Structures are given as C-alpha cells and as structure tokens.
Model the fold of this input.
Amino acid sequence: MIQKKTEQDIAVMRESNQIVSDVHRLLTPHVRPGARVSELDAMAEDFIRANGAKPAFKGYSSGSKSIPPFPATLCVSIDDEVVHGIPTDRVLEEGQIVSIDVGTEKNGFFGDGAMTLPVGTVDGEKLRLMRVTKESLYRGIEKAVPGNHLHDVSAAIQEHVEDNGFSVVRDLVGHGIGKSLHEEQPVPNFGRAGTGPRLEAGVTIAIEPMVNYGSFKVRIAANGWTVLTRDASPSAHFEHTVYISKDGPVLLTNHFERENG
Done:
C-alpha cells in the first residue's frame, strides 16, 4: 500500500534528507586519486551520527539468510559496479567514476540520495554517461506530478537514456520512501507512458536511474551485495528523494542541481 505523507511528515523527512545532502557535500572534495574508500565511509558515519541520525544502510538485510547484513554506512560503487559497492581499503584511482549512495534515518523517517563523481581527470565518454544519467533523472522528476501515471516517470528516463545510446538497468528500481527505507511503490527506470498507478499528492519516492554504458544486464558479486555490469562497462547512478505535492515535484534532497537548465 502506498503511504501518503502529511505536511508534518514532510517536515521531518526534510531533516533526514538534508543530512543525506550534507554528507554528499562533505565527501565530494575527498573523492580524488589516492582516497581510501573506507575513510570516506567513516567520515560519513561520523557526520550522520553527530547530526542525530542513523546510517540507513548499515545492518540492512537483503532478506537472505545466506547473505550477511550490509556492513557499511555508504554504498560506494566504482566503474563497472552499478550499486551496493561495499567500502573497503581500496584506493581510488585517476580516471575512475565512483557512485556514492547515502541513506539516513532520523526521527522515524528516511532519506536517500546518490550521485556519481569523477576521480581526477575522466575520459569524455564516462563524463557523457554521467551527464546523461543526471539528465534522465530530471526528465523523470518532471513527470512526477499528480494525475500522471508512474510509468510516465519511467518512460521519460528510459527514452532519454536510450536516445543517447546507453541502457537502463532492469533488475534494480527506485522505490517509495518514508517511515521505511523501501516502501511501495517500486519506481522502474523503464516502462510505457500512460501505464502504472496514478500518482497522487502526498506520495514520496526515490527516483534513481542506474545507467550502463553498454548492456543493461548485470550480475551479483560473490559478496552477495555488489551489482556489476555483466559486460564490465562503466555505470552511473543519480538519485533524489522526491515529494509529489499538489503543485508538482519537490526535491527533498539537494546534493546536486540540474545542469544546462
């Protein structure tokens, strides 16, 4: 069941989502060649707890008894890692792209946001992949208005990605968010416009295109968490938490802004 939020709920959600955005701003200047991923994770956890919140991902269960709970505060995914990269002592290298996904919980409500950053100087095609992924997110957000169908959001993302020669991951989707990190309704990044449930004011969703340079197909690493492109091509990931108000979409995260208008 889709959980609508009151104005009071949204006020509380703004707090958790602002912490998400502040973590991204804190980490961005530290994403550079030679940075150790585990140190980024420690910085994020310290900041989140210092602001009266909890890391939403740390201890999160996949539901499988054979896979341990997620062990870290951040998901840090490098190059062909799509999402759910586990922070280790790995050192970032020049030319990589790195996706950082942050989740928080404060006063019973969750925030979630992700962005992909270059490590030093990055080749033009990786930069184009990042740009198109971010643009596709905003194409989807524009469709998140009361009265539209959910898959209007999905179709707008898919069309922009594929028009630019990239592919959207099918096995992973966005999601509702609020008192739980993952609520109804799943928000796919592909679909046919005019289908899916009607969007209503009061709904909050995390829209998060995951876009591969090559094929949309993915695989799961041996750790049971990290998702990688099957063809080893790079992948980018951008995410905002969005409140669908009666007047249209409102960003609850603000860790990056739209480029090119």
About this structure: The CA atoms of residues 61 and 68 lie 7 Å apart. The domain at 7-251 is CATH 3.90.230.10 (Creatine Amidinohydrolase). The chain has a mean pLDDT of 97. The chain has one domain: 7-251.
